[in-house]
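Hi R.,

Here's the chain you asked about this morning:
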Amino acid sequence: MKLVHVVPLLFCFHLSFCKLTSASDASQEDLVDRKCLAEQYTHLSCSKVFCQPWQKCIEGTCVCKLPYQCPKNGTAVCSTNGKSYPTYCQQKSFECLKPQAKFLKSGTCTGGETFSVSLNYGNTDTDGIVEVKLADQDEKIFICKSSWGITQANVACLDLGFPQGALEAEREFHVPAHLHENPPECVHVQCRGLETSLAECTFTRKAIAHEGLAGVVCHTAATGCRGQAFWCKSGVCLPSQRRCDGEVDCIAGDDEVGCGGVSYLAQEKPTYLTADMDAERKRIKSFFPKLSCGVRNSKLVRRKRVVGGRPASVGQFPWQVAIKENEKISCGGIYIGGCWVLTAAHCVRASKVHRYQIWASLVDWIRPNSETLVQYANKIIVHENYAGTTYKNDIALIELRKRPNQQECVLPNSVPACVPWSPHLFQPGDRCVVSGWGREKDNQKVFSLKWGEVHIINNCSRFYPGRYFEKEMECAGTEDGSIDACKGDSGGPLVCEDINNVTYVWGVVSWGENCGKPEFPGVYTKVANYFDWISQKVGRSLISQYNV
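And the predicted structure, written out as tokens:
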């Protein structure tokens, strides 16, 4: 991978995941670099990337799990500190606490084993041809140039003690004549880019180095952002090897779309010389909680213009529920799994818990369909910082009452909407859907569930100066205001589909003014901002298999 314009600010691949513009657009580049510094996004920013199996997400940052929090099943590994660990995850989590205890090899430690990386034939101790000694081999061996790139070079430099990684992976070095005349054997190496040692990368079959040997120039000072091969929708740069490798890295899953079923790593069948740590990491992930959310039985038909909303069919919005109080539907809600429904704080009161009925799979509340199931509320949890005057933190949870002789809540015709963990999952301009039994523009009552397509709107403070809070709120609508949430829709869902057609509850209908006018878009509670709050109340394993 070629270098793209380096400036003395920070090294984005390891210290930030900001997108770099072309070198010709200096002003835009400066803007991007300032955002890199201001936001401080890194490979540990779990609002933009997935944490590794030995990490968990706390307040937007991937932090190390204690070793006992790792899955117990896995492959035993040996560390450079001479100790054996039951799993790779436990060794990595221990390394977070004790950086000197790096991965050495798979299996238990038997003594006298070493892994090393060194540079030869360079001009200084920061550059040269790369040689490695694998733990179970006595001789050093070169790395083939054909499998070498900036991703592998970064890991090599980290291993050598250069925290900024690699400056170049393409430079030619003067090597002795005998290496040209009789090319030596070399090994291929594959890294993901976040390893702390080349020992964690996967080495495969030897070859004769006719195409050349891998070299590197390591950073000795922090430098600027650089281009990468693939950009996630959320603005994260990925090495090309992580595209179509069968493992989701972008939070929206766009790195695994359009791959045709052939992964990057499946293009050849290598003979492994070392443990395949990619396979071990995937094995660890197989022990994560399994979720089933956000997938309908029927595909939603998108409509560009749905004036006033369209009637919904049975099963079209299997996460939509109605909250009934005093013989009328007062609000909507969103089923998120287990015994839990998400709604707006202004819709419910903890002291009135015995009054609420939750109607699931309902379409027409004058003539309920046969699939409709009525549940009763067991507990109401209103956000402790909800402010009724500003609608800030307008979010609440309803725990459903279990039926007699049932261990869990069973809603046979419902499907939970997925709860988003990152505010970067969807962006302004993305199309989403709002649904509910709210009134029409003329205040006319609505008895059947209706839905309409809206788009996320940026900078809604211009519509509601002094009353709109960017972190806690989202707004959405149409250019002409023809689709909007209105009175009675409160607490209901604003749902968005990711690139894999998985539906997330992006917003909870909260407030707005003058239904159906373009200068007054609907305002929603931004659910991603409350992921930690929701998971604390319902249990993180219920709503997330990532960053747990």
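Confidence is low (pLDDT under 50) at residues 1-34, 262-267, 299-308.

Let me know if you need anything else.
M.
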